[in-house]
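User: My collaborator sent over this chain with a note saying "see what the structure looks like." That's all I know about it. Can you take a look?
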Amino acid sequence: MVNEIEQLEPKGLWHYFAEICKVPRPSKHEEKIREYLVAFGNEHHLETIDANGNVLIRKAPSKGYEAAPGLLFQAHMDMVCEKNADVAHDFSKDPILPYIDNGWVKARGTTLGADDGMGVAAMLAVLADNNIEHGPLECLFTFDEETGLSGAKEMPAGVLQSKYLVNLDSEEDGEFCIGCAGGVDTTATFSYQPQTVPDGFSFFRVTVNGLQGGHSGSDIDKNRGNAVQLLARFINMLYSGNAVLLAEFNGGNLRNAIAREATAVIGLPAAKKEQVRIVANLLLADLQNEYPNEPGLKLTVESVVEDAPRVMVDTDTAKCLVRALVACPHGVMGMSQDLPGLVETSTNLASVKMQNDYSVLVTTSQRSSVASRKEEVKNKVAAVFRLAGAAVSHGDGYPGWKPNVNSAIKEVLAQAYEDLFKQTPSVGAIHAGLECGLFLEKYPDLDMISCGPTLRGVHSPAEKVEIASVGKFWLLLLDVMKRMKSLK
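Assistant: Without extra context I'll predict from the sequence alone. Here is the result:
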């Protein structure tokens, strides 16, 4: 129950996290959370600004901190909306249902939205509490971070007044980020001729599910199965010696999530129908051996009789689609030469969606901390789909964030963490994308760092946040605000 969450410490932060769990906030549909934030700012008599769809709330310094430099906290208001297939949940109106499980907060069958609800809740708690010591404070809530970093792109120049920015979108206690990868999306569209299904075929619904999925940046190196690619692999195996019809192929969801589920409806000549189950059993055995870290992996086959399809994708396009999905690069493409253990370049085969205009849309995303490698892998993915006859396009992309090793705010956070918890934090870069690189384009003098509590399973229904780390995160923010007096 939400009330259970609100009893956790720090109460102010958990109260606001429970509150925003009730407010729908899918990416690109942030109207209700934006209204909530504006109402919050007005209720607390704080300067509240609509910055091209982002919400900026300012709070005057507390007594004795008037001379401290401006500090900006920043988090994104939207969340990734993923759910298990057997869960009935409408993200446009239904609340997230958080609960406590052995030291973690999780959600029932859906993403939790701790990414970046923890950052949003922390800022609201700071703004609402008049007993906190701080200098001039700005809190920026950006929109549509998860599907395009749109809020950061739309943030106008000349609005922010702070010299230092603390992004609250990191996912590991004791690890501070001062750099991140840039990214770009690549989409491929296969147009097909709908054809009438011939007589004498048996149809099956084939599903790959039970995979962990996860974040296409921070989890891409964990050798997790991609449901879209595994399903394409199965169909491609059937092509050997069989006439295979394709009536449907849908899988994955968001560009920055590893595909956890995919389903296809296929047909084989009735005399060959047993091949479907034979190949499925053989492949499943191989996959269980290849992916020991995916204990929930399932490949299921169901006969489709009463609602058997009457229309199919033309055979040539179907083969091109399936084989392109098999050939499409997915996963880590290169490791950093500068930071051991850091992924430099990767690509994610994110989703396949049948469209109403007799086309199939394939969405992928590429990331790299090296601009030229981002271009290389983007073009590599595009080449695969162009060879298969698809129309390919690229998104605008977003820049990486080059680390500032001389960052003053980095020193403040590192020293605060060490003094509070008697541990030396790690400071480095991440492979996931953050909005900081876009802020630097318009505010080149910003000194930035990113921090956050410990999250696991983000961008999937397995998402959870560690309760103890949230308490440490809060104490760190309080201490950093006090220490701003020492900066110029």
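A starting point for your reply to your collaborator: The domain at 2-181+401-486 is CATH 3.40.630.10 (Aminopeptidase).
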